[in-house]
Automatic annotation (TrEMBL), chain A:
It comes from Dimorphilus gyrociliatus. Pfam families: Sybindin. This is Trafficking protein particle complex subunit. It is found in: Endoplasmic reticulum; Golgi apparatus, cis-Golgi network; Golgi apparatus. Its main location: endoplasmic reticulum.
From TrEMBL, chain B:
Its main location: endoplasmic reticulum. It comes from Dimorphilus gyrociliatus. The lineage of its organism: Eukaryota, Metazoa, Spiralia, Lophotrochozoa, Annelida. The keyword Transport applies. CDD domains: TRAPPC1_MUM2. This is Trafficking protein particle complex subunit. Belongs to the TRAPP small subunits family. BET5 subfamily.
UniProtKB/TrEMBL annotation, chain C:
Homodimer. Belongs to the TRAPP small subunits family. BET3 subfamily. This is Trafficking protein particle complex subunit. The lineage of its organism: Eukaryota, Metazoa, Spiralia, Lophotrochozoa, Annelida. It comes from Dimorphilus gyrociliatus. One of its GO terms (cellular component) is endoplasmic reticulum. Keywords: Endoplasmic reticulum, ER-Golgi transport, Golgi apparatus, Lipoprotein, Palmitate, Transport. GO terms for biological process: Golgi vesicle transport. It is found in: Endoplasmic reticulum; Golgi apparatus, cis-Golgi network. Pfam families: TRAPP.
Length: 222, 153, 180
């Protein structure tokens, strides 16, 4: 069974290690005027709001138009995905009849490094809330979380480090893998004399062993 | 065993809450408890949509801890049903919540002209029917379950 | 009007004629109580809206239909499932505009107007305006803001009754309120 991601967060909710392997989801299609997909500008991106077809899904982001990528770097300002690289505004192009036909590439945006940090710290607080809201005494936090497209398995060590794996939704039990991950963390991060506790893990040996562990786990569960 | 049930409207107002076998109370007020639960599921929804490796369709459905399981069901109109149970629970709880929506919520809340859609449900009939519905579920309680199986035998 | 197809074993179904007569009496009374046709149209739309925001739950619960992917799917479901379930008619979905954000529901055997004739002094009354409100209210509850209006009316000599639906926007989900 596929392992999509491995994350480690420290006691304060800080992401100290991440590795992900989400599949690339992109669709390119040519449109004539008027386009029957509804867009919205959201969080400095142009997102499909309504009108799902041919693999284009609600939530997909416009990645390029006629081969020109989106993402405009304004001088001194932040990266803006509502414009093309050459500075033209996407919504204006879509509204302008004379610019058609348009070949538009859509896709599911991968998480950026910042987004990962934000999301995992969000999980850290959700985890704490799941303990607080427990209807029964002495409950742990979230151990397994299920959604239609994935399953998240979380193991919190006694020291408060959280080890998280994201897998295929059909995957039943990741305890063996989580235990292995804990061992690797203890061996190749903590025992490394140059590794500073609670700081991001940048140990090639750890990465390498992890790759092996992921391969083994995926093979066994298949 | 079913512990409790929360029903929220789409703006986050808790329309209904009931507990059956809850063994631990939160150390905050009821209102605070409702807010926390709504906040947690709201965060869970956006967390799941974003961290999902492929395009999500339904998104978040449940989680479990060492002691309990939380089940989440949302209608296309944005009503949220949240139920917590023990870990021994059998069967599809989201389907159970859909049935509850169909046979109890629509019948005794939506069809009740006295019932305002965005305020906590005050109807006695509604809570009676809901209680009846939950308690007749085989998953309701261990005692009920053993009683049921002895009748079957 | 009987809901034979939708819920054949439901003993609570009422005669379609009773509904037609009830609706007629209601509109007639509204006309009597109001200053202008416009006001009646507004009232009917408002009543429809209040019905729509409740009816949608009944519809979703019974049909187990999930979120729509695009407006074409929405239109089909309104016609083939929604109208079918509650009025036992299936309006034709037609008159799409080019950008695919506007369509019409064409009704040719409208049960609401079965016995009605518009008096000469109420030519601007939109007798079936309640349907506009119902569709608008129901869609609002599934995060779709639309505009609806009756553009053709059998009571005004048109061949069919045409209800136009125009997509405005997707409504975003409200974030939980913070502690003030």
């Amino acid at each position: 069974m596929k392992i999509y991601g491995v994350y480690i967060i420290n006691r304060a909710g800080g992401l100290i290690f991440s590795r992900d392997a989400s599949p690339k989801i992109e669709v390119e299609k040519t449109f004539s005027y008027p386009i029957d997909i509804k867009f919205k500008s959201y969080d400095e991106k142009i997102v499909v709001a309504f009108g799902q077809r041919d693999g284009i899904k609600v939530g997909h982001v416009v990645l390029s138009i006629n081969g020109v990528d989106t993402g405009f770097q304004d001088e001194g300002r932040s990266y803006n995905m509502t414009k093309l690289k050459d500075g033209r505004e996407i919504l204006k192009i879509l509204d302008d009849e004379s610019s058609y036909p348009l070949s538009i590439k859509f896709g599911r945006l991968r998480m950026t490094a910042n987004e990962k940090i934000m999301l995992l710290s969000m999980f850290h607080s959700i985890f704490a809330m799941s303990v607080q809201l427990s209807p029964v005494p002495r409950s742990s936090g979230i151990e397994v979380l299920e959604a239609d497209t994935f399953k998240l398995h979380c193991f919190q060590t006694l020291t408060g480090i959280k080890l998280i794996v994201i897998t295929d939704p059909r995957c039943s039990d990741m305890n063996i893998f989580l235990k292995k991950l804990y061992e690797l963390y203890a061996d190749y991060a903590l025992k490394n004399p140059f590794y500073q506790n609670d700081m991001p893990i940048k140990c090639p040996l750890f990465e390498e062993k992890l790759t092996q562990a992921i391969d083994t786990s995926e093979r066994i569960s298949n | 065993m079913i512990f409790n049930l929360y029903i929220y409207d789409r703006s986050g107002t808790c329309l209904f809450y009931h507990e059956w076998n809850r063994q631990k109370q939160v150390d905050v007020s009821r209102e605070e408890d409702f807010k926390l639960m709504y906040g947690m599921t709201f965060s869970l929804k956006s967390f799941c949509n974003r961290i999902s490796p492929t395009d999500p369709n339904i998104g978040f459905t449940s989680f479990k801890t060492s002691q309990y399981k939380l089940h989440f069901y949302e209608t296309p109109s944005g009503l949220k049903f949240i139920m917590t149970t023990d870990l021994q629970i059998q069967g599809d709880i989201r389907f159970l919540m859909h049935t509850l929506y169909k046979d109890v919520f629509v019948e005794y809340a939506i069809r009740d002209p006295e019932c305002e859609l965005n305020k906590p449900i005050k109807s006695k009939l509604f809570s009676e029917k809901l209680n009846e519905f939950i308690q007749k579920q085989p998953q309701f309680g261990n005692i009920a379950q053993t009683a049921l199986s002895s009748i079957v035998k | 009007m009987s809901r034979q197809s939708g819920r054949s074993n439901d003993p609570r179904k009422v005669s379609g004629e009773l509904l037609t007569l009830t609706y007629g009496a209601l509109v007639a009374q509204l006309v009597k109580d109001s200053e202008s046709d416009d006001e009646v149209n507004k009232q009917l739309d408002k009543m429809g809206y209040n019905i729509g925001i409740r009816l949608i739950e009944d519809f979703l619960a019974r049909s187990s239909i999930g979120k729509c992917k695009d407006l074409r799917e929405t239109a089909e479901i309104i016609s083939k499932n929604g109208f079918k379930m509650f009025l036992n008619i299936t309006p034709i979905v037609a008159n799409w505009n080019q950008s695919g954000d506007e369509f019409s529901l064409i009704i040719d055997n409208n049960p609401l107007t079965e016995f009605a004739e518009l008096p000469d002094e109420h030519k601007s009354l939109s007798y079936c305006n309640i349907l506009c409100g119902v569709v608008r209210g129901a869609l609002e509850m599934v995060q779709l803001e639309v505009e609806t209006k009756i553009v053709q009316d059998q009571l005004k000599g048109d061949n069919v009754t045409e209800l136009k639906v125009k997509y405005i926007r997707k409504i975003e989900e409200a974030a939980p309120a913070g502690d003030d």
